[in-house]
Amino acid sequence: MTIAHFDTTPPKKTTNLSINSNLVREATQQRWLAENAAFIAAYNKRIEVEDLPLEQYRTF
Fold first, then answer.
1. Interatomic CA distance for residues 35 and 24, integer angstroms
2. What Cα–Cα distance (Å) separates residue 53 from each residue in 18, 50, 59?
3. Among 1, 30, 37, 46, which residue has the fewest nearby CB atoms (within 10 Å)?
4. Residue 17: burial class (beta carbons within 10 Å; 0-12, 13-18, 19+)
5. DSSP alpha helices (H): ranges in 1-60?
6. Does residue 20 sit in helix, strand or coil?
């Protein structure tokens, strides 16, 4: 197996990059959900056991 080597010393060239904003938003949402999955599960379990906070004040 050969590893391709390239010269990392030349100066970098600035380029423009366009990415679909929907793709960025979706990736951000997925990452947030993954990072907070444990908290969301714990909160949902707490709501199942204790009901909603301030439930007594709901008028509907």
1. 16
2. 44, 8, 14
3. 1
4. exposed
5. 21-35, 37-50
6. coil
| Contacting residues for 52 by C-beta, under 8 A, at least 6 apart | 58
Per residue in 21-56, pLDDT tens?
999 999 999 999 999 999 999 999 999 999 888 888
> Residue holding tokens 């993954």?
34
Q: In this structure, what token pair is assigned to residue 15? A: 């380029």
Look up residue 11 and give its amino acid: P
